[in-house]
Design goal:
There is one protein chain. The protein has about 80 residues and is of the alpha+beta class. It has one domain: His-Me finger endonuclease fold. It is built from 3 helices and 2 strands, in the order H-E-E-H-H. The termini are far apart.
């Protein structure tokens, strides 16, 4: 990804993380968001803050695990 492509994608995302909406790059590489991509196809999905990038990696990019986590959190909220 070129810097021009990065800047275009960041503008398309409104200057924030594609998942949580933060503009904080404190836990990212320098002043940049992580370039999130599908590890099978290599296709870029979006730009993520360090926390969201780490979270997706920790669940091995598996949507079912994320759904299970949501169900778990909703079951035990409050």
């Amino acid at each position: 990804m070129t810097m021009e492509e990065y800047d275009t994608l960041l503008e398309k995302q409104g200057g924030v993380c594609a998942v949580c909406g933060t503009d904080d790059t404190t836990y990212s590489r320098g002043n940049y968001f992580h370039v999130d991509h599908n590890h099978t196809t290599g296709k870029v999905r979006g730009l993520l803050c360090g926390h969201c990038n780490l979270a997706i990696g920790q669940v091995k990019e598996d949507p079912q695990i994320i759904h299970n986590m949501i169900s778990y959190l909703e079951k035990y909220k409050g």
